[in-house]
Amino acid sequence: MTPLILVLNGPNLNMLGTREPAQYGYETLADLGQHCADTANAHGLEVEFRQTNHEGELIDWIHAARNRCAGIVINPGAWTHTSVAIRDALVASEVPVIEVHLSNVHKREPFRHVSFVSSIAVGVICGLGSHGYRMAISYFAELLKERAA
Ligand code: DQA
């Protein structure tokens, strides 16, 4: 069976393209989804790309990933800095997680320097725009290849 990578996006990321372009650039969420699909295809992986503005919905998606997904790439948006519930859901899923941010959160306001997710993630990528998502998917692809070898 083709391994599935779940790419999850939190609140306000549906506004990409028009939202604070100085921070997030001009690519839309659909562009990001296309980049992820292209990268996954190139590695023979399947990808599901989702966004929600509702925290409970994101938590339900994370729970459903248990025993179903080979990896989660997540940009929790502002919930990164606020949500113990999302962190707990990720731990409960027992799926390896890579945290991604489009902007370099460490260059920004101090409240963005705190993440509830980073310490339970395999790794964190920030500041590289949509490249971060692609790199995270490629990393999972390499890891799966190594495990299969
Ligand atoms: C973000 C950074 C967060 O601090 C912010 O709340 C977002 C986007 C990023 O991708 O750079 O919504 O996660």
From TrEMBL:
Catalytic residue list: 24, 101
Assembly mode: Homododecamer.
Family designation: Belongs to the type-II 3-dehydroquinase family.
Keywords: Amino-acid biosynthesis, Aromatic amino acid biosynthesis, Lyase
Site (Transition state stabilizer): 19
Function (record text): Catalyzes a trans-dehydration via an enolate intermediate.
Positions that bind substrate: 75, 81, 88, 102-103, 112
Superkingdom of origin: Bacteria
This enzyme's EC code(s): 4.2.1.10
UniProt xrefs under InterPro entries: DHquinase_II (IPR001874), DHquinase_II_CS (IPR018509), DHquinase_II_sf (IPR036441)
Protein name: 3-dehydroquinate dehydratase
Molecular-function GO term, any one: 3-dehydroquinate dehydratase activity
PROSITE patterns: DEHYDROQUINASE_II
Pathway(s): Metabolic intermediate biosynthesis; chorismate biosynthesis; chorismate from D-erythrose 4-phosphate and phosphoenolpyruvate: step 3/7
The UniProt record lists the keyword Protease: no
GO biological process assignments: amino acid biosynthetic process; aromatic amino acid family biosynthetic process; chorismate biosynthetic process; quinate catabolic process
NCBIfam families: aroQ, PRK05395.1-1, PRK05395.1-2, PRK05395.1-3, PRK05395.1-4
Catalytic activities: 3-dehydroquinate = 3-dehydroshikimate + H2O
Keyword Zinc: no
UniProt cross-references to Gene3D superfamilies, sorted A to Z: Dehydroquinase, class II (3.40.50.9100)
HAMAP family, per the entry: AroQ (MF_00169)
